[in-house]
Amino acid sequence: MTATKKPQAQYLKDYQAPPYFIEHVDLTFDLAPLNTRVTSVITLKKAVAGEADLALDGIELTLISVAVDDVAYSDYTLLDEQLVIHNLPTECQVTIVNDISPKTNTSLEGLYLSGGAYCTQCEAQGFRKITYYLDRPDVLASFDVTIIADQSYRHLLSNGNKLTQGQLDDGRHFAKWQDPFKKPSYLFALVAGDFDVLEDTFVTKSGRNIELALFVDKGNLAKTPHAMTSLKKSMQWDEQRFNLEYDLDIYMIVAVDFFNMGAMENKGLNIFNSKCVLANQETATDKDYHTIESIVGHEYFHNWTGNRVTCRDWFQLSLKEGLTVFRDQEFSSDLGSRALNRIDAVKVMRTHQFSEDAGPMAHPIRPEQVIEMNNFYTVTVYDKGAEVIRMMHTLLGEEKFQLGMALYFQRHDGQAVTCDDFVAAMSDASGIDLTQFKRWYSQAGTPRLIVEQEYNTEEGIFTLSIEQLAPVNQPDNAPLHIPFAIELLDRQGQPVPLSFAGKPIDHVLDVTNTYQRFSFDGLATKPVAVLLEDFSAPCIVEQHTTEADLLHIMRFARSDFSRWDAQQQLLINAVKAAIENPREHSLAKEVINALRSLVIERKGDLALIAELLKLPSFDTLAAEFAVIPVDEIVAITQQFELQIAKQLQCEFIACYQSLVDDGSVSADAVAVRALKGICLHYLAKIDEPEHAQLLCDAANSHNMTNVLAALSAVVKADSPLSVELLNQFDSQWRHDVLVMDKWFALQAMQGGDNAIVNINKLYEHPCFDFSNPNRVRALVGSFSHFNTAQFHRKDGAGYQLLGDLLVKLNAINPQNASRMLTPFMSWRRYDEVRSMAMKAQLQRLAELDNLSDDLFEKVDKALQ
Ligand code: TRP
Ligand code: ZN
């Protein structure tokens, strides 16, 4: 008997501690593609007084038997998604046997097959697809795991240390693993397959020897050194900066091709999307190298922030994710360029996060209501969560922040805790009151700051008045505690000391009220104010900075980030002016000259210069408008780029030719390639034999950064070279699906009216596979995010393409479908014709009778 169920939300306010503790689990897996047998022996202790049923979670399991203390037991109720066992003694061992089918599991959650290997993904609630269990993060148990499989699966892996392994009479073999650290079920992992292994060791600061092992598909060993180096750097950095040492004796990473996200921090046995591991200079770009390093770091850092101290419930996800993103950002910034890392992080905030926060899925970094937890692995929980940690870091300073971290571990090691517990540790260790600050955890939306500047000539007093407005979509928000960093520059560009009436003022202003004034005296002339320096809080600053002030900030601000920011603002203003006044369709001479001197002088970090030469992205520009003027943004951006290309082509050629790329992965070489890539980007826009030659040379080089720079330049420029270069790439790389993802992405970005026909054809390409999230994201994700003109065609054909895909993915992999849906979430921000066409696709999904919870939650919110 099945009643049609409407998905039910869970609420943070309803949290209750579990009625039973699970002290220990003993799992045995007898692996077979269609019927893996799982035997689970759980040692239980009742945690409450009186009667309590044990309601174990389980989905798509075939129950074989239940026993209590080794005696068959039948006093239970089997529901659709639960096994409820009645009348258990206060302490007992429950043995559950069930079957599962990894081969038909296309959701990539639970136990599934990736290529020829078994692997698992349990966060957030995938363990219930493996066996009946209290599948919640506040149930911490020690795990013993036995894996039995055919000999062809040479490596049998699970968390912790290997106890034994051996042969069985029937020709199969087994391995037994033991994880001494208690953990929640979401950190469980199992892998069985035949891999190539890169082994290494790391000696911790206390002198312990850690065995490191990286498992990849056969033939990929040459692409593993970078990930291994990244791991060792991560381990060392966490010791130095956070005083945190690794705990187990072995650390394993397995790379698999079928994976929903980037990677997963399972205790002692990380599982990675192969695209976040595999790299060499011929197949991976410098950006890939950077991403790999940061994700390897991220998962490693989870060992303390996530695993040793975990979340009480999933509403607290930002406790581990916001904090771990903050840590991986600091890792990247300490090892590489702090400014560029900051720029990248802020771009994510201002485009993706701000738009999520302004749309139908807006939620606080600690959500209060969830239907499908997988929908809350968001830029808000991760990236805004990291900004919230960063603000605490700004308020406390590094030293007190580290005291807070130490207190957090001292209090909570081995526990499942809340965001409040984290903030309490920070506040107790520093003596800084964070009561008001905590509103960042419970309020959604982006606060707006209206800043006004006044200068009193007679008294030499400069005053900033700051008004804090609640987000448009969250009118009831209370004022937040905002660390508002500033710098004041005099006419010569020198920094002005901040003080009033003889008292120094810190450059981080505490904005806590809806309206506040901050005065500074001793100023002989009106200063130029750098506001929200380094993006010290995730806010929108609304104020009219003159072009002259922006140019002054671009030249003199101490923060590289703020210099970039001022330049972006200048370009954004230019695009807006051109949209408002179609006669002003060219960039001002001053702007072109500023760009020209960047290319000619090449002072400082070349990677930063490359960044400064980019126009703001479509998403950045779109964020400036209530109703996104799609056609105008596309047209004006193209016009500006062409203007830059034409007016600076000699400079770009000279720059390109004078830069020497030594082919290494050093920061200098990476910066050189980045700048050369920008030169190609502009040069491709002008059809000249000399440019074509440079592009073809780069496309034929043995460095993927250069190859891709050339290819994306010709594709974006709609250059006649594209067809030939793309075909050449296809025949060169067909054997390597990860490289082919770059090709799929280039195909998807091709302008021209046949883009959609082309994508439909590419679904038939031998490398394409709807059940592989990397392929789907490369082709359709790139189309919907980067092929603005074609995705947003007025006839709705782009939306139709995405709608068709979502219908298909909904049945194969709801988690991936839900991520791919994102572009439709902001349908209300487009003009009438477009928004109606997008809405029609959402309605089409709403009517599916097999609609997954994942899609239901988002579609339902979008249509409300
Ligand atoms: N916890 C992982 C991380 O941030 C991400 C993650 C959550 C994940 N759910 C997942 C990865 C599902 C893959 C599949 O590092
Ligand atoms: Zn994480």
Automatic annotation (TrEMBL):
Q: What are the residue boundaries of the Peptidase M1 membrane alanine aminopeptidase domain, all occurrences included?
A: 227-440
Using the record's annotation, list all stretches that form the Aminopeptidase N-like N-terminal domain: 49-187
Instruction: Please list the residue ranges annotated as the Peptidase M1 alanyl aminopeptidase C-terminal domain.
Output: 548-864
* Cofactor section: Zn(2+)
Question: Sorted alphabetically, which CDD domains does this protein's record hold?
Answer: M1_APN
Matching Gene3D superfamilies: 2.60.40.1840, 3.30.2010.30, Neutral Protease Domain 2, Peptidase M1, alanyl aminopeptidase, C-terminal domain, tricorn interacting facor f3 domain
Keyword Transmembrane recorded:
no
* Gene Ontology molecular function, alphabetical: alanyl aminopeptidase activity
Classification via Pfam families: DUF3458, DUF3458_C, Peptidase_M1, Peptidase_M1_N
Annotated ranges, domain Peptidase M1 alanyl aminopeptidase Ig-like fold? 445-543
The cross-references to InterPro entries, in alphabetical order and at most eight, read: Aminopeptidase_N-like_N, Aminopeptidase_N-like_N_sf, PepN_Ig-like_sf, Peptidase_M1, Peptidase_M1_dom, Peptidase_M1_pepN, Peptidase_M1_pepN_C, Peptidase_M1_pepN_C_sf
The EC number on file is 3.4.11.2
Give the record's keywords alphabetically: Aminopeptidase, Hydrolase, Metal-binding, Metalloprotease, Protease, Zinc
Q: Which reaction does it catalyse?
A: Release of an N-terminal amino acid, Xaa-|-Yaa- from a peptide, amide or arylamide. Xaa is preferably Ala, but may be most amino acids including Pro (slow action). When a terminal hydrophobic residue is followed by a prolyl residue, the two may be released as an intact Xaa-Pro dipeptide
Spell out the NCBIfam families in the cross-references: pepN_proteo
Family, similarity comment: Belongs to the peptidase M1 family.
The name this protein carries in UniProt is: Aminopeptidase N
Organism the protein comes from: Pseudoalteromonas haloplanktis (Alteromonas haloplanktis)
